[in-house]
Amino acid sequence: MQEKIQVLMDLLEINKAQATDIVGRYLKEAKDIHSFLDYYFETLEKEKIVGTTYEKLRIVCKKAEIEFKKRFEDKEIFLYWLKSKYKNCPFFRLFEDDFIYSYYCYDAEGNAYKKSAKSINTLVCINSFGELTYEDGDPLKNNEFKHNLIDFIFKNQNRIGVDICANSSYKIIRRYKPLSYEDDYNNFKKKEKKAFEENRKKFEEKIKVNMTYKHVS
Hints:
This protein is of the alpha+beta class. It contains 7 helices and 5 strands; from the N terminus they run H-H-H-H-H-E-E-E-E-E-H-H. The strands form 2 sheets. A 3-stranded antiparallel β-sheet has the order 1-4-5. Strands 2-3 form a two-stranded antiparallel ribbon. Helix 1 packs across helix 2, helix 2 (16-27) runs parallel beside helix 4 and helix 3 packs across helix 4 (53-68). It is elongated, with a radius of gyration of 30 Å.
């Protein structure tokens, strides 16, 4: 701890009381103080944070605490982080078979029944109000789907920001591989061969039946 305090005092020229407060409050468990300082200067440059060095340190430390720890532990903090980091832009690629969710429907007589559905293949965005939307900006209106989607993203934060520039067409999404013309032709030949074998067996069975009928009569 003393080493971290001394590094902050030497490199950022803050006094011992300020350095002790920062380390004791935020950086006690930090393994590498120099990696944190890299993050500190990058954040200052990116977000144009103003104030004294001590004030800037406290702001960046709070951001780091959310970025690297609390967003994985608390869903509300995660949503706050998501809005501040990805506001008005896409952030998550969802695939059709990622999860299954249930919702209630009503039949013609007004009776409620439960129905299951799969997640859809879409690019998820977040608007300036913190609402999850589709790629075209249309808000998610199905609450059951939305709640399940938030849970899924919260548990799979390692996928945030991955493949978000890919077109939503299944042909260029990493999980799917489009068939080449050769593959299509080979599949066509397999189907034709299968149909031929099925017809040949039916024809042979028909011949056997006819021959048996002739022998009997």
